[in-house]
Design brief:
- With about 550 residues, the protein is α/β, with parallel strands linked by helices.
- The protein folds into 3 domains: about 10-105 and about 215-335, 3-Layer(aba) Sandwich (Rossmann fold); about 115-215, Glutamyl-tRNA Synthetase, Domain 3 (Glutamyl-tRNA Synthetase, domain 3); about 350-455, Ribosomal Protein L25, Chain P.
- It is built from 12 helices and 27 strands.
- It has helices at about 10-20, 45-60, 80-90, 105-115, 130-135, 150-165, 215-225, 240-250, 270-280, 295-300, 305-315, 325-340; strands spanning about 30-35, 65-70, 100, 120-125, 175, 190-195, 210, 230, 255-260, 345, 345, 350-355, 365-370, 380-385, 385-390, 395, 405, 410-415, 420-425, 435-440, 455-460, 460, 465-475, 500-505, 520, 525-530, 540-545.
- It has a 7-stranded mixed β-sheet.
- α7 packs across α8 and α11 (about 305-315) packs across α12 (about 325-340).
- About 40% of the residues are buried.
- It binds one RNA strand of 75 nucleotides through α5, β6, α7, α12 and β21.
Length: about 550
Amino acid sequence: MSNAEPQLTANFIRQMVAADVQENKHHGKVATRFPPEPNGYLHIGHAKSICLNFGIALENNGTCNLRFDDTNPEKESLEFMQSIETDVSWLGFAWTNKFHASDYFEQLYQYAVQLIEQGDAYIDDLTAEQMRLYRGTLTEAGKDSPNRHRPVAESLDLFARMRAGEFTDGQYVLRAKIDMASPNVNMRDPIIYRIRHVHHQRTGDAWCIYPMYDYTHCISDALEGITHSLCTLEFEDHRPLYDWVLDKLQTPTHPQQTEFARLQLEYTIVSKRKLAQLVTENHVNGWDDPRMPTLAGLRRAGVTPAAIRDFCERIGVTKKDAWIEMAVLENCIREDLNENAPRAMAVLKPLRVVIENYPADLVEQLHIPCHPQKPELGSRQVNFAKEIFIEADDFALIPPPKFKRLIEGGEVRLRGSYVIKCNQVIQDEEGNISELRCSYDPNTLGKNPEGRKVSGVIHWVAVADSLPAQLRLYDRLFCLPHPDSEENFLAALNPDSLEILDDCRVEASLATAQVGDGFQFERTGYFCLDEDSNCEKLVFNRTVTLRDTWTK
RNA sequence: UGGGUCGUCGCCAAGCGGUAAGGCACGGGGUUUUGAUCUCCGCAUACCAAGGUUCGAAUCCUUGCGACCCAGCCA
């Protein structure tokens, strides 16, 4: 890829890290981590976090671990873990170490024992419902559980028996003993362990008690020597708990948690639960449907890792709730593809053109540059013959104002080829245009015609050697900018998010395209060869349209 | 009514007491065998509001207003 990585602009996290390095905090080391829960596919929102965490590490010669936050086996799976590794790698990042929160289950358990011994945690047997009542509300303090002062020895015994599997799910929990009157509800004796007789994707049946996120995350960070623990805004209220646990445990290191705003992209959603719903209810064709904001979906659509990285840099990192317009992402995609995608011609809705003054037995081998601004990319062979297809939309019987394509009696340039003139329009009984009879000017190959100006240029393919193809025209998945705030986000689904064109014709040079290869089909958009292609038919997904200032 | 945050151009975003970067979008001109690209020009006397401090405030203080998050044995 020839494009340089984006210009880095200042953001508060970069500045904080730079200041820490300057002050030799953590001995000048920078260690971050990307900690996804393997309960779904990664999406564009994760890309922001990935670019931030790996980026900060890279910029400071630091390290960045991939850590699966796998403390809730009921929702997690190996399939998701695999997809996450694939996607992070595809985005262009290499983790220093790969860890799992489950790697720390034994240490987490021992730390919990320590907490109990210190009198900082206790076993409670309140039901979930009772617990909720005791917790109070946002404006009223909670009240102490009757078990809050259970003797240490008793809690220790109960905790060991929880681990041993003596109890049923929900029968007991381990709670941190903090402050039931805290204005921060997260500090009202939060649960740190619960009983779940569930098979874990990695630890199997070794455990029937699983640690909660708040308790696990900070210790995992500390054990890995993370210096900067970056997470999203909704965890701001959890930071006091993060710090409380590490302070009580006197861990060797105490990472600094810093929160930033999660990505909100217009006309899409980044809620894993809702993305999963789109998949399971078949509103899309899987997690990698090109309309999905998942990395797998973007990849299949033909979006490049560089475009996503550029996007993540451009949107910035702040603590402000911000909505990013889809145009920003599209611009990043176009900018990268314009620079790097070879050009080709594809006719979406073919209209047969017979060039009457062109010899029937002649086939000219034209060579058209793969990129108009980059001759070094070479050229491809495109054959010209008596019968060609042009885009039905490029001809108009009754042209709209300023139409500069083909009209009856008018002239137009065939891209990379000759200027043709339309002499006759053949229509069927119903008035449909079935064919155009044209003539070409032999003196216009590679040069302008004499004595007149032809401003229109249209794409074409030869009938004989063009290839049949299916083009999938994707559009935004939702027709409302903030589908997530709708009472029913499914109602905001765009009914026209996919248009399948089955009778397209593409130039012969595309026969050797590989799955995933991206092209600019001149004048129609950027496309990517899909894995559904077979020897009978090529399948291309539209990544994004070309900018269009005419139809506006 | 508790706690935690945030408010700079239509959308992002720099700015960190010395007189409003940049990107996207938008409008206009030029080049062009893609109505693409490229290129040139325009686009906040103004920083949520009102007071105050200061020679000087988007930056400091005060008071309002608005928005977002938190009461899972989810993360």
